[in-house]
Amino acid sequence: MRYADTGSLIPSGTSESNAQAVIRLAQSNLLRLRMPIPEQDVPLISDGSAATVHVQATGQQFAATVMRCTRDVSNSTRTMLCEVDVPNPTLSLTPGMYADVSFRLRQKQASLVLPTVAVIQGDQPAVFIVDPNNILERRPVVLGITSANQQSVTGGLQEGERVVVGDLGSLQPGQKVQPQLAAQDLLTYHAGSEAKPKANQ
Description:
The protein is mainly beta. The protein has strands at residues 30-38, 50-55, 61-73, 79-87, 99-103, 111-115, 126-130, 136-140, 142-146, 150-155, 162-163, 198-200.
């Protein structure tokens, strides 16, 4: 920004906080995308981390790399600011546009995956297991990677065991149920029904 022309009289000690810029120049062929990283993901992201950027206004999607991070978590938002440089040689992107950024934070092969609604959250996460006699058992589990709709389980559960999904608050250990599969392809089930954890390929 430029606040005065050559030859202008500028009073000594005048603050620029309320000044009006005479001209503002911007380089638009290379844009800088800033994004807040949640505190729990800060250890998993650093300079050089791969990212995928999707610009809502234009529908463009492209691979990018994290160029710099502040390495400082804000006390008010509990997030860390990171930046991605976005090449814009055709000027199809305009400064101020919103973009979604995706990171692959962690990956674990052959892990058990459940719908998030199957997990009883708390100090000790647990799930309801349906035993061979259709009796409910509350089973503590160890959680792994979490996504928006799925939760990996790293301990306390074996592949093939039947897991209840949905309306967990109305169920009690020792209760007899009549499990019914609701949607096997989506792994979502009605209250009191069964689900089998699958291996994430």
